[in-house]
Design goal:
Helix content is 32%, strand content 12%. By secondary structure, it is an alpha+beta fold. A two-stranded antiparallel ribbon has the order 1-4. A hairpin with a 2-residue loop joins strand 2 and strand 3.
Length: 302
């Protein structure tokens, strides 16, 4: 009798298996969604970094948006102009001039530049330290505990002498460092040239309060803005209009001379022309700096 029950159970399972296979086969046909073959091609063009710099979860999602939703083909920060050109050719769209975005750490205060510092014994992360008051006199400055370093997949940012610095040879513009910074002092700036001018401070306090906590912070004196139309003072802090910024015509020499705090800094890699101009001077191979930006990460502050 037991063997009969076993055969019965086996027969029932077999019938169910056959029935389910038919159901699944029908469902596969009934609910099948045709995938545009260009999505696969677009994904093959993308670098596969899945960094999220384009605003999408990964390269596949961005490829689908480009093909199916007419998303801009210029959003891949890692692939840059070459990837945008290939995507444009695939889709038959004209590619507008696109500038690569690179990270800028807007804090120029090294350990010795900070006038008020206190010992911190908590969790050694910027996100944790940012919740504690009184660690630094400047609440806009780089905490220097390396959350951005750990977030970068390209080894393009390092903390040196208490402040994060970008290695522009390695930076792909993925934006991971900007997203992880709890003080929002890293912004993504359109690099219209190998070197870009930025404002190395994000402190919106009054000039008196800034000088009390930092040796290099912007005091909002307006000296730079008076001699350069690309610079505006907002909430006591200088900022550069990158929409109007044209490297060929942008001349910051007068503003650099006027700035009493040396808050204007060139970041990036010097061009051959830049190197030739200082060939007789004893300078480092690269010009990099420490910076700050506005705490409002919805605006460019550089």
């Amino acid at each position: 009798m037991l063997s009969g029950e076993v055969f019965l159970a086996g027969g029932v399972m077999a019938v169910l298996a056959v029935g389910m296979s038919y159901v699944l086969g029908w469902a596969n046909k009934a609910f099948h969604v045709e995938v545009d073959p260009r999505v696969e091609k677009a994904e093959d063009i993308l670098p596969g970094a899945n960094c999220g710099g384009c605003g999408y979860v990964g390269c596949r999602e961005y490829a689908e948006a480009v093909v199916l939703e007419a998303e801009s083909v210029t959003k891949c920060t890692v692939g840059g102009g070459s990837v945008a050109a290939q995507l444009g050719e695939l889709l038959g769209v004209e590619v507008e001039e696109a500038w690569p975005y690179r990270a800028v750490v807007h804090c120029g205060a090294t350990t010795t530049d900070r006038l008020q510092q206190h010992e911190y014994r908590g969790e050694p992360t910027c996100s944790a330290a940012n919740l504690v008051t009184g660690i630094q006199g400047c609440i806009y400055g780089c905490l220097g505990m390396g959350d951005c370093v750990r977030a970068c997949s390209y080894d393009a940012i390092h903390v040196i002498d208490g402040v994060a610095l970008i290695d522009y040879d390695a930076c792909t513009g993925c934006g991971a460092c900007a997203r992880i910074c709890p003080r929002n002092i890293i912004s993504m700036v359109p690099f219209k040239a190998e070197q870009m001018m930025v404002v190395s401070c994000s402190n919106k306090d009054t000039g008196k309060d800034v000088t009390a906590v930092c040796k290099v912070g912007c005091i909002g004196c307006n000296a730079c803005a008076r001699v350069n139309d690309l610079i505006q003072i907002e909430d006591g802090l200088a900022g550069i209009d990158y929409d109007q910024y044209q490297p060929e015509t942008a001349d910051f020499s007068a503003a650099l001379d006027k700035c009493p705090r040396e808050s204007l800094v060139l970041v990036g890699k010097p061009s051959e022309k830049d190197l030739a101009a200082v060939a007789d001077q004893d300078l480092p191979d690269r010009i990099e700096a420490d910076f700050k930006t506005t705490v409002d990460d919805t605006e460019w502050r550089g």
